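Note to self: keep these together.
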Amino acid sequence: MNIQAEKLDLIEWISKLNDKSIIEKLKEVRNSYSHSKDWGDFLNQEEIESIEEGLKDMEEGRVHSHETTRKIYEKYL
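Structure:
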């Protein structure tokens, strides 16, 4: 079943609901979902700057292959 069909199935089911407690739980889920944050919203300024620096390094070709990186850090793995 594709996502659109599943949503329509849920809409039909909800439209027939008469149980107030289930409706309240669904409202809680909706409110929780609409207020959820992206993981990026929890980054501090230092972390954001570090990511930006890494992206700049990548754009400017300052990168190493996976194989090279594994050799450098294999003693820690």
